[in-house]
Amino acid sequence: MSGGNEGKMISGKTVAEHNTRESCWIIVHGKVYDVTEFLDDHPGGSKIILKYAGKDATEEYDPIHPPDAITTNLPPEKHLGAVDQSSVERVEVKITDAEKERLARVDARPPLSEILNLHDFEAIAKLVMTEKAWAYYSSAADDEITNRENHIAYHRIWFRPRIMRDVTRVDFTTKILGHDSSMPIYMTATALGKLGHPDGELNLTRAAAKHGVIQMIPTLASCSFDELVDGAKPGQVQFMQLYVNKDRAITKRIVQHAEERGVKGLFITVDAPQLGRREKDMRQKFDDEGANVQKGDASVDRNQGAARAISSFIDPGLSWKDLDWFKSITKMPIILKGVQCWEDAFIAYDQGCAGIVLSNHGGRQLDFARSGIEVLVEVVEKFKEKRGITFPRPGFEIFVDGGVRRATDVLKAVALGATAVGIGRPFLYAYSSYGPEGIDQALTILRDEFEMNMRLLGAPTIKDVVPDMVDARSISTHVVAVPGDRLYDSNYDSMQSATLKAAAKAKL
Ligand SMILES: Cc1cc2nc3c(=O)[nH]c(=O)nc-3n(C[C@H](O)[C@H](O)[C@H](O)COP(=O)(O)O)c2cc1C
């Protein structure tokens, strides 16, 4: 507590009296805050706060804010003191029938040994996550065409394996921005990690340490940045993803703090001047019914989902001119995340960036943006044609993310010139459905897939995974996937996903 009210004890009854728009106090982690003047500045709208006016808001607050969000955003005099917990009126949490059914599905999860691939985590996550978390993690922009295309694009690339090469031992270790990685993948930034599991992004930090991969810490993590750095093992490499704040002083503070704490790469997100419309998420209406303190408040946008609620600070004015400023405030390598065509890749190269991520934000921004893997083919081709430059190349590294679900996907990207690929949702689904063991299993599955597929490809090391090993001639053929394709439905059995235990399935 940083105000002059340290040590002051306030009764729950007193807090409960401040339950209006005119005087709104809330309790978070046993501390009382006067948020009256902050109501209209809250990025998620005032309505959600008013629902908890005079009450303990910790449970709602935790998954969508870093622990220090409230202390850093409210002036010290608004930190009123500690609450006498014995006198706090509990907000009654009703367990709905839907929630009871969800909990039954959690009990009916198949054992981890039956989870055979990353798709399986998604199938189980859909059954066992809360609706709110599933909506935020799985949603994508508009009709979600780009989201589906991200994975489908990999289906248009085929292998040209080599034979009779000694693959007794295969080694898929590599370097990312000069740092060791046990596989050519990294954990890309995904916000609001606690929606899926109480430990949030720390699940990723710990698994990254165990498996020797690199985690990119998101600006909008549910855990605080320092928690995630403190949670790392000595020497563990972490990157940081940055949403650029309109207030550059805040951005500077975040960047320099990250550098001081040893972060090894700054990934600036450049594809989100405004967050895309993620309708599944918006339908969840974070500011739900039931708040009667401010009936008739027309100023509240009732269509905000988690994404919009947290993102209003992002600067749509970010431009190429800002790059020099970034270089002046940090020595960390700067990588632009969200490059989508060769022209911008060239500018990033010419302006001295250390790399680019060819990404469409997991299909969450511009629908009908092309997949990262398709853009990779274009970018590599143009660099060769116009500049005589080939990849992979130290000094300017190309990364790809979106739709990566198999080691074969990764190997295709590596063959085409990517240094490594980012994986987002599969890791969220893994820990949301099975906690730390889930993410451990996800990385083990990938490792096993790398080992087998490199053998079958005839590539003993990552350096042996070369352009000639893939046929990507069809990559730009955009075929829209027809849901419920008749031929597929009637002639073939669909792929099966992991499912609940038989007895439970019969009951539900
Ligand atoms: C739930 C979720 C939250 C995300 N949050 C961020 C973010 O805060 N910043 C960012 O640059 N990208 C964010 N992304 C995009 C990812 O970094 C990445 O581009 C994308 O997830 C890759 O696609 P994949 O999920 O199919 O692997 C998010 C993606 C998801 C699914």
From TrEMBL:
InterPro entries: Aldolase_TIM, Cyt_B5-like_heme/steroid-bd, Cyt_B5-like_heme/steroid_sf, Cyt_B5_heme-BS, FMN-dep_DH, FMN_HAD, FMN_hydac_DH_AS, L-MDH/L-LDH_FMN-bd. The keyword Oxidoreductase applies. SMART domains: Cyt-b5. Transmembrane segments: none annotated. It is an enzyme of class 1 (oxidoreductase). Its EC number is 1.1.2.3. Its cofactor is FMN; heme b. One of its GO terms (cellular component) is mitochondrial intermembrane space. The keyword Flavoprotein applies. Residues 7-84 form the Cytochrome b5 heme-binding domain. It catalyses: (S)-lactate + 2 Fe(III)-[cytochrome c] = 2 Fe(II)-[cytochrome c] + pyruvate + 2 H(+). It comes from the Eukaryota. Residues 110-475 form the FMN hydroxy acid dehydrogenase domain. It is found in: Mitochondrion intermembrane space. Keywords: Flavoprotein, FMN, Heme, Iron, Metal-binding, Mitochondrion, Oxidoreductase. GO terms for biological process: lactate metabolic process. GO terms for molecular function: heme binding; L-lactate dehydrogenase (cytochrome) activity; metal ion binding. In the N-terminal section; belongs to the cytochrome b5 family. In the C-terminal section; belongs to the FMN-dependent alpha-hydroxy acid dehydrogenase family. PANTHER family: L-LACTATE DEHYDROGENASE (CYTOCHROME) (PTHR10578:SF148), S -2-HYDROXY-ACID OXIDASE-RELATED (PTHR10578). Homotetramer. This is L-lactate dehydrogenase (cytochrome). It comes from Rickenella mellea.
